[in-house]
């Protein structure tokens, strides 16, 4: 029986399409495959589509009435493992993913008396899908931002699938993930659980502010 049974994961799908779209989401499929690999480790996960929520432009954790970010922020921080899922557009993370990362900028001003930002002790994974180059660039941009605001990035934390350029087949169209990707999903999941388990038992001590 896994001793990480009390761990949870929360994924934000940063597709440009809302959950009411009739078109299937490759980002949803990638997130589902990643959550499936976390499940044998005893990790329960949930998913939300960022565009279903009104993420008001800004860099504060609460931009006032009507802002949809505070509710998503709670779910991000309640989970031990956060998954940011994004498609590639023009070689970059989606505008929705960038909006999510902008809103996380608010964490920078919310450090406690030991300079720990709210995500300190939380682990982050990034899942990327697309039919063009850019997966590594997307990972680099997302991981840098997530690390800046306090998330821990475990080894091999990036998973991706990039189809043949300018072709119609998407990740969601595949019958099964390629074997190399399946191995990557398993590795990312195992490393994320290992790091999250350690951090849940022994959170970063932080450093007192210098007066």
Automatic annotation (TrEMBL):
**Region forming the signal peptide:** none
InterPro entries per record: Flavoprotein-like_sf, FMN_Rdtase-like_dom
Instruction: Tell me the GO molecular function terms.
Output: oxidoreductase activity
Q: Where is the NADPH-dependent FMN reductase-like domain?
A: 19-165
Matching SUPFAM superfamilies = Flavoproteins
Tell me one Pfam family matched here: FMN_red
Give the matching Gene3D superfamilies.
3.40.50.360
Q: Quote the protein name from its UniProt record.
A: Multimeric flavodoxin WrbA
Native species of this protein? Roseivivax isoporae LMG 25204
